[in-house]
Amino acid sequence: MATGTSDAGEGKRHNADSDIRSLLECILSDFSNISVKRVHNLSYLSEYKYWSDCKNRLTTAEYQPYLEGVHSEDIAEALDNFNGIETRRVQVGKDRVLTLKVKEKYDCNLDKNGREVVERVVDDFGEVPPATIQRVIADTKGFEEANSGTAIQFQ
Predict the structure, then answer these.
(1) Cβ within 8 Å of residue 30, ≥6 positions away
(2) What average pLDDT does this structure show over 112-130?
(3) What domain of life does the UniProt record list for this protein's source (predicted)?
(4) Three-state SS for 73?
(5) Of 68, 65, 41, 20, residue with least CA distance to 126
(6) CA dist., res. 43 & res. 23, Å (int)
(7) What DSSP designation does 17 have?
(8) How far, in Å, CA of 95 to CA of 139, rounded?
(9) What is the DSSP letter of 3?
(10) Which has the least CB within 10 A, 45, 91, 109, 150?
């Protein structure tokens, strides 16, 4: 699967946006409501598992270590420009959690390997407690090696 990494200039950005959107559509296709943090974490775990299996990336998104898993400005930007989702704040205990209400049905347009990885990640981690997904992310090689404020390297 092309990730937009071999193109130059504007074409590279367009392909990167398209790949990020494809990953998000694949994740969102399984949810009617999901926290924004969980979208970032599932995106990263999908990328990590795909990298582990195929030695290639699904997207060009950069991820940084974050208090509760990972954060990606690329993912955040793509979500800001997504049609068919509504951003809400939901009270969970004492916290107000930023969530997405998925109003459209999305198709997963990743290649077969990408689709299988994302489906496996969503099945394994889509509904687990936040602490569980955070522990799994903290144990990934790139997360362990990244310094705060720097991008996690897939290697």
Answers:
(1) 119, 122, 126
(2) 96
(3) Archaea
(4) helix
(5) 41
(6) 7
(7) H
(8) 26
(9) -
(10) 91
User: CA nearest 69: which of 2, 132, 155?
Assistant: 132
| Distances 98 to 59, 76, 131, 132 between C-alpha atoms, Å | 24, 12, 17, 19
* pLDDT tens string 130-144: 999 999 999 998 898
Place of tokens 């687990």: 128
* Domain positions in the chain: 9-145
pLDDT (0 to 100) of residue 110: 94
d(CA 74, CA 19) in angstroms, rounded, equals 11
Mean pLDDT, rounded, of the chain: 88
Of 98, 114, 104, the C-alpha closest to 40 is: 98
| Biggest distance spanned by C-alpha atoms of the chain | 47
Encoding tokens for residue 50? 């795909």
* More confidently predicted of 126 and 67: 126
CA 94 from centroid of its chain's CA atoms: 26
Q: What angle do CA 122, 68, 154 make, to 5 degrees?
A: 65
